[in-house]
Design goal:
two-stranded antiparallel sheet; about 190 residues; Alpha-Beta Plaits; globular; 6 strands; 7 helices; about 60% helix; alpha+beta
């Protein structure tokens, strides 16, 4: 038996089975929370992080992440990975309960549950699940930084250091770091 061909076939079967699209009731649940840009930090640190920690501690979910996005209205995209149907129900109930204050006070003016389409072409079939895990750790870290009693300048410096540390993992020199960051900046305008 050719080990390479066996592993290639096994890997190809895994990629074929890799789920791309998740709707409500699947293992990934996806909320869009339409709010103001300034309000987003408070929602992340005061609600999303505590809700996520509660859900993790009670083993209703095993991962989550958020993204700030504009399409064309600014909103937070909050995704969480549930372990089972009970976790899905408990997660939705807890999140809905905790969002009521923001909705009642028009801080969040629209809540939308949407289809999560994994960006497999962007991140790669082989590492999409790893990417989601990195997003989880990154979101958790960002939410904790937002909870720190520091000013905007200090927060900005921490952000730069995190980006620099991340790029250092890949042994990227300073000139290439600048090129990458310029390209990323242009890609998100």
């Amino acid at each position: 038996m050719n080990l390479y061909l066996y592993l290639r076939k096994t890997f190809d079967e895994y990629i074929f089975m890799l789920k791309r699209t998740f709707i409500l009731g699947d293992s990934w649940c996806y909320y869009k929370l339409y709010t103001g840009f300034k309000e987003a930090d408070n929602i992340i640190k005061d609600t999303l992080l505590p809700v996520a920690n509660y859900l993790l501690d009670n083993k209703f979910i095993d991962g989550w992440f958020f993204i700030r996005y504009t399409d064309p209205k600014f909103h937070l995209r909050f995704r969480f990975h549930v372990k089972d149907d009970r976790g899905l129900i408990k997660s939705i109930m807890k999140l809905n309960e905790e969002l009521q204050y923001y909705i009642s006070n028009d801080i969040i003016w629209k809540v939308q549950i949407d289809t999560y389409q994994r960006e497999i072409e962007r991140y790669g079939e082989e590492v999409i699940e790893l990417s989601e895990r990195i997003f989880f750790y990154d979101s958790n870290m960002i939410a904790k930084i937002l909870n720190m009693d520091i000013n905007d300048k200090e927060r900005e410096l921490i952000s730069f250091k995190i980006i620099d540390s991340f790029l250092n993992v890949f042994k990227i020199d300073d000139q290439d770091k600048l090129s990458i960051l310029r390209e990323l900046q242009l890609g998100y305008k």
